[in-house]
Here is the input.
Amino acid sequence: MMEMINGLMNTMLSNQVSIPLIEPMLDMLQGIPMMGYMIALVLWKPFFAIVICPGLTVGGVSLLFFPWIERKLCARIQWRVGPHEIVWWLGGVIQILADTLRFLFQEVIVHKDAHKRYFLQFPFLTFIAFLLPLLFIPAGNIVAIKTPYGLQIVLLLLCLFPLFVMGLGWASNSRFAYIGTVREAFVYFAEEVPFIIAALAMIILYKTSDLTLMASEQCIPGIILNPIAALTFFIAAAMATSRMPFEIAESDQELCAGPHVEYSGIAFGLIYVLCYEKGYIISGLMTVLFLGGGAGPAIPYLGDLSGAFWFILKTYFVMTTLFVLRTIYPRYRLDQGLKIGWSPMLIMALIALAVSLVEVAVI
Amino acid sequence: MSGMKKVVAPEYNLSDKIKTHAYAIGTAMEESVYPHTATVLYPREKKKMPDNFRGYILFDPDKCISCFNCSFVCPANAIRMKEAPNNRYYPTIDYGKCIFCHFCIDSCSGGALRTTKIHDVAYKDVDEMFTSTEEMIEPPEIIREDKKSVEYVIDETDLHLKRKKERDGLFVEAVPPVEIPMVSQCVDRGSCLACKICERVCESGAASSVVEEATMTVKMAIDAEKCTGCGLCVKECSMQILRLVRVRK
Amino acid sequence: MEEEEKDRNIRNVHSGILSPLRRWGTKWSLWPCHFLTSCCGVELAHAGACGFDMERLGTLNMGISRQTNFIIVEGTITRKMARALRIVWEQMPEPRFVNVIGACGQRGGIFWNSYNVTYPWKIVPVDFFIPGCPITPEGLIRGVRAIQEKIDGKDITTIKFKKVELPSGGELEERMVPTTPKLLAPTPEVKIDVKKSVDWAFGNELKGRLKRELEGLYESITITDTNRIAIRATQEKFMDVAQRLSDIMKMDHVKNVNVIDVPHERKYIVEYMVSSYSVDELMPVITTVFTEIRREAEPEFPSLTSLWESANYSEREMHDFFGVRFEGNEGMKGKFLLAPDTPETPLRKDFKIEEERYVIEEGVPLTPPIDPPQYIPHPSSVSEEEYLKMPAYEDVVEEAEKNDEFVAFIGPHHAGSGHLRWVMRMKGDVIVDVIPDPGYVHRGIEKLAENRLYIQNIPLAERPNITDCINMNLGYVRAIEDALGTEVPERAKYMRTIMAELSRIGAFFYDMGIFPLFMGHSSGFMYSFAIREMVLELIVRMTGSRCTPSFIIPGGIRRDIPDDVLDLTRNFTTAINKRLKKFENIFVNNPVLISRMKDVGVLTREEAIKFGIVGPFLRASGVEYDVRKVAPYEVYDKLDWEATTGDAGDCLGRIFGRLEEIKQSVRIVKQAVDAVREMPRGNVISEEILGDYKEASGDIKGYLYNVYGNLVLPKGEWTSVTESARGTVLYSIISDGESNVPYRVRVITPCWMNLRGIIEASKGGRVADFWTVYASFGYFPPEADR
Here is the structure.
C-alpha cells in the first residue's frame, strides 16, 4: 500500500509545477500532516492541467468573466456602457454570476413534445463533452495528457461538438429547433474541411502533431509562417463556434436560437456558456498552433505558470477577437455561409497547405 | 420628372470588398479605443428635459373657472370633473388613460393646469393611477436616485453629453396664456324660453333668473362682471341664442 | 387570480435556504422577453439602445420566452394579441414578472373604448404599471428598478401625492351637468361627390375625357377638389367603369378601398380611389369611383382584384369591418385583421362603442369593464390540448405536407417578427409561400375617429405610427385644411416642413435600427438609435414630447419654436454626418450586408405597381412618384432638393434609396431652418381659423378647445395624401356638414400597402431572405394594422 502511494508520490513529484511565488507558502503548508500529498497531487502537472490551468478553474473563471469582458467591450464599441449597476464601482463585473444564479434557480420546463430524457441529459452531456479537448491543450508546459497525436485527438473531439448540438435540437422536437439543427449540420460540413486542412498545414510545417512540441518549437509564430492557414483557421473557428457572421444555425431573429429554443433554467444556462466554452477551446488551439502557445518573456516568479500566463493571455485575445466579430458583422445566409466554406475557404486551406509544403521543402 | 435623383447601388469588386471590410473593422477598433458613448446612466443621473416637457399635470383651483374644456378636449377621456365641496367642478386625471398630449393645458384659458417634468413613475395597481383633484394641487414627491443631470448638447460636429453635478428641477413656472376676455351674451332675447338651463349650468353664478311679478314671466340675465366666459351656457342653451363675445373696453 | 399569481412569484423568490442568492440573482438578471405588443416597443428599443442602455441593470432583451423571466407589455393588448400574451406568459419559467408600460395597457389610453382592446391585467398578473403614451425610457427603467426593489422585498411607492383640502362653502345650488360637446346630426346626409368650384384647368379637361371614355357607364362625374374627381356608377356597371379606367385611362393602382355605412338610407357606399403611376399628369389626381349598394346582412360586391391587385388586402379589411363580400377575392373565408372574438362587423354604424363621460359619478367605473377573452381563465369546457391553441391553418399544413414542404408558424412572439404572424411554407431553404396574419395591433382607429371631435382625432391619427408621428399628424391636419380652405402662415409652413423632415429622418433610423437587429448586427442598431436619440431630442425640445407631439393643428402649429432650438436643429444637420458616416461604415456598406441585400427580394416596376407598393420602396423599383414633388405641400416646392429613385428594386436599392432620401431630408431641414431664422417672428396659426381668438396666433395655449372644439367640416369627402417616411399616407374624411365629429375617417398607411409587397418579394427567396425583405420595407405593424 505504502509502496504504491510512494510510487505514485514519486511519479507526481517528478512532474511538478514549480511556482517560485508561492513556494514559501507551500513550505509552510508542508508542516501540516498529509498536506504534502495534497500539494504534490495538486501540483502534479496532469492534475494541475485538468483542475487548474487550463482546465476547470481557469476555464470556469473564464466562463464567468469572459462574457462580461465581451459584453463590456461590445458595449464600448456600440457607444454604450454595458453591465454596470450591479456593484457599479467595479463596472458590473459580477453580472454573469447573477445571470448564472438566476438560471440556476429558475424552473426548467420540459415541454410536452420533447424527448424528455434526452432533452434533460443533452445539455449536461454536451457541457462535459465540450471540456474533453482541454485535456490535450498545453498551457505552456502544463498539459494533462501528452501524446504525439494531440492535435488529431483535439480535432476529433472538436468534430463531436456539432453532433451534440444536433442532439439538443433533436431532443427539443420543435419546428425552429428542427430548422436550426439542419442548418448546424450543413455548416458543420462546410467548416470542418477547411478547418482540418488548415490544421494539417501546421502539422506539415512543424513536422509534429504533439501540441506541446508544436507550441514550444515555434521560434517564429505560425501566424507569420503561414498567415493564410491562420486566417482560414480563424474563419473556420468563427463558423465552428457559431460566431458572427456565421451565426447561421442559431440565428436569434430567424430561428429564436435554433436548437436551444426550448431550453430554460439551468439547462439553458449550460447551453449559454457552451459557446464560450467552445470559444475558449478553439482559441486555445489557435494560440498553440499559430501564436506560439505559452511562449513569451519568462516571468521568474511564476515559474512554470509563466507559460500558462502567456497562454491564457493570448487565448483571451483570440477569444475577444472572435467574439467581438459580432459588433462588426451581420450574419450570412445559410447558402452564402456554405458557399464560403466550400469554395474560398477550401481554396485558402489548400493554398495554406501548399505554402507549408513549400516552406518545409525550402527550409 | 425633374428633381429626381437616381440612386444606383455600385458594383462591388474585390478591392471594394476589402476596403469596406477594412472600414467596418477600422470603425469598430476606433470605437473600442475612443468610444462616442451616448448613454445616460439613468437612474444614477437624469436627462435634463426642456421646460415645455409634457409630464404630470398640476392644478390650481384658484385659477379654475370650471369650464369643462379640459374634460371635453381630452382625447382619451382621462379627465373627468368632480364636484368639490364648494359646489364647483374640478378636474381629476386618470393616468391609466392619460396620453400626455396636454390638450387640456392648451385648452385651459385660466391657466389653472400646468405641466411638470415628472414622467418616470411606476404604479402597483391600476386603481392607484386615478388622481383626484386634491392630489393634483401640490407637487408630488417621486423617488429620485439621480445625483447628476445630463444635457444633450448638439454642436456643429457631434452630440455631446454635458453632465452637471446638480439635479434637474422637476417643476417649472407656468407660462400663463394670453388673456382674451370673453363673456356670454344673449343675441336674441325674444326667443328665450326661460328654461333656466344657463342658470343651472353656470359655475360662477353669472346667469340668473328674475321672476317679474307683474307679468308672471321669468327673465334671464347674465351678469357680465361675474361671467368668466367659460362658454358652458352657450353650449347648453336650448335655443342656441347665447354667444361668447369679446369684452370691449 | 392576479393577486395570487403575483404573490406566488415573489414567494417563490423568497423561499428556501438559498433565498438571498436567489433574490440577488433574479434581481440583477431580469431579462425581458422580446415580445412587442404595440407601439411602446419603440421606447423599449430606445431604453435598450445606447441612449439609455438597459443592459446596465442586467436587463438584457432576449428573444425567447423560455429563457427570460420578465415580460414588458408594451401598450395595447388587442383581442387577437391577448392569446399570444397568455401563451408567452405560460411558456415562461417561474419566477416571472410582468410590467405594463403605456396607458393602453392600463385603462386603454386613447383606445379605451375601442372594440378590439383588452386589459392585459385581466390576462396575466401584472407587477407594475408605468403611465405614458408612450412612456419615456426613463419610465421603463423606473419600472425595472421598481421590480428589483420588489424582489428585494421592499414595498415602495414611486410617487406620493400630497392631499390638499379643496375650498369649501359654495352658495350655488343643484347644478346641471353639462352634456357632451359632440353635436351629431340625427340623419346625416352623406355625399361623396360634393361639387366644388376650383381653379383646376387640367381637371376640366380630364372630366371631359372621362365623360367621353365612360360614355353611358357613369351616372355623374364631379370635380370635388383640386386633383380629386368622383365618378358615380351603378352597381351593375361598376366593373365596366373600372375596366375602362384601368385599360384606357391607364389607372394602374388603388390607393384606397372604402365602405361607408349609411343605415338610415339603408345603403352602403363602396368606393375605390384609383390613380396612375404610368401617366405623369394623372399622378397627383385621385379618381374616386363609387356606387351605392343595398344594406344587407352580407351584401355582395364584385371584387376588383382582377384589375387592381393592390385592392386585395383592403377589400379583405372591408369584409372584416362591414361584412361586405367582395366576390372574387380569395380572402373572404374568414377574418383577416380581426380576432375570432372581436365583435362582428364593428364599423357598421349600429355597432355602438362606449360614450365618453365628463364627470365622476358614483358607481360608474372609470372605463368600460371589458371582459377578458373567453379562454382566460382556462375554461373547463376546453381540454388542456386545445387550450390557447393559435389558429393552425390545417388546410395549409395538409397541402404543404403533400408537396413535401415544411411549414413554420412565425410570430407574433418572435424575435424577428414584430407584431405580425405569418405562416411560412418552405421547400428546403426556399420560401414557397408566405401567408400573412396581420391585425395583432389593430386598434380600430377608424371607428374611434367617428366618435370623437375633429381635434381629438389628432393624437389618434399619429398613434398608428409613432416613429413618424409628425407626418401622420400632418396628413390628417392637411385633410381638414383642404376641407376648410385654410391658408397656413408661412412661418408655420416652414416649421411643419422642418418637423416633418426630422420625423422622416427619425423613422428612417428606426427602420435602420430594426434592420441590423434582424441581421443579428447589434452595432448597427445602436448607432442608428444614437442618431434617432438626437432627432427625438430635437422633437422633445420643439414640442415637449418625444414620440407623440400632436403638435400640428389645423391652420398651423401649436406654438412657435424658440430660436435656440432652431439653432440646435441647424447644428444637427452637420452633426449627424459624423455618426452617420460611422453607421455607414459599420453597417450599410458592410460587405456581408451588401451580399445579403443585393438582388434579394426584387420587385420590378410592374410588380411594384401591381401590388400597390408606396413610397421609397416604389421609387426604388423605378416609379418616379413622390407626393412632395408630384403635388407639393407645405414649402417643399420652394426648397432645393431631389427625390430619389432607383431601378434595381432589390433590398439594396431600397436601403440606398432611403439613405439618399434622408440625406436630402437633412438638406431640406438645413434650408428651411436658414429660411426661418431670417424670417421675422410672427403668426404660426392662421387667424382665419382663430376667429375671435386672434391673440393666440403665436401660441394656442389656453384656447385650443375654444377654437377647435366646434370645428365642422363642409359636406363631402376630403382626401389628403402625404409623403410619410415609409410612403403615401392617405386620410379620407367624410363629413356630413353638420356634426362636429367626422362621419367616417379612412386611414391608409404605407405599411398596410407595403405588406403585400413584402409577401410577394420574399416568395422564391431563401428563408433568411424573408427578414431582409421585411426589414428593407421598414414594416411597422402598428402602422399597418391601425
